[in-house]
Amino acid sequence: MNRVTKPEPNARIVILTGAGISQESGLETFRDPDGIWAKVRIEDVATPEAFLRDPERVHAFYNMRRKRALTLNLEPNAAHKALANLEARWDAEVLVVTQNVDSFHERAGTTNLIHMHGRHAEARCNYCSHVVPWVGDMSVHDVCEGCGRPGGLRPNVVWFGEMPLEMERIQEALAMCDLFVSIGTSGNVYPAAGFVALVRKLGRGHTVELNLEPSTGASLFAESHYGRATEIVPRYVAALLGA
Ligand code: APR
Question: Does 203 have pLDDT greater than 80?
Fold first, then answer.
């Protein structure tokens, strides 16, 4: 690994993660050649309009992905665990902001976590906004336990055209951070793709990219390390912790 710039021990760290960090746990990414968007059209399954038009199809897509992510024997990998270890051992705040809707970060032990694109493990009611934990399949016949109406439950994930969650808290953390690390994301989807530019504009944090290959915004990062997440993330975290 190239030289790692070590922040001060009291540095506040924000880490953005994307599908690449979960790839070696057995989940497909979106934009790699064998990724999800090479097989299914975004406008058929991942927009509010798609759900209005054909809720069964959208449910089938998310039921398949939820089953894979939550009920098969897939486990958090060394990269998720390294980030949990960093949070446990770093003196100042470490915030993980993930675009992933799987549960690997929390299962690895990360507690200071924002799921900006929602979670597979939850359903939300379109009528009353009630959110409930969800593990199995979801259908148009399910009844919301908040308002008692059928037909309104949807995956609690952020679709294209919708506003990601907790943006205010994320922007505050980006403005205050001393180190911003982007892991396993191709840099194609905003607002997450714009975080590195925001950190640079606000002029505080050192910026680092850890990815299999240079992302779309690679030139904006001050430091970068390329390779598989299970190799480079533990090495990078060990360097930060001085191990
Ligand atoms: N280790 C590290 N990086 C990897 C690995 C790996 N083992 N495998 C793939 N990658 C990298 C790819 O090179 C790519 O740059 O991870 C990135 C994955 O990019 P995308 O598939 O575009 O996923 P992501 O950036 O998370 O997508 C953002 O798009 O469709 C939406 O809502 C969805 O949250 C998702 C958002």
Answer: no
